[in-house]
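Problem: given the chain below (116 residues), write out its structure.
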Amino acid sequence: MDNQRIAFSPAVELSYLTKEEQAELWDIIQHEDCTPSLSQAVRVKKLSQEAKLTPEAISAIMGEEKANQKPQVRISTEKLAKYFPKGYTSEQMEKSIITMLEERKRKLEKRRDEAR
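Solution.
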């Protein structure tokens, strides 16, 4: 796991930690196979400055799911374009899709309620 790399901005924030805190963070990074985002690094630095940084706090922060790690469904605009009027923007398509899914959900719930 020696090829772990931390982006520049988070690394700058983490450079303010004590040597002991940096060593603890590095152990967690290697153990969890993760690197800190900028927001995580800023929070770690803040806890360090407040003398509240513990291995448990580092683990909790590093264990958080990052926005770019959350599962997403992506469909290209080109694939969707044939189902919408010419000139629809991506935002208009998304809004229409959400509206259709909400209507579908209401219909399914109504059928389920009627079946009871």
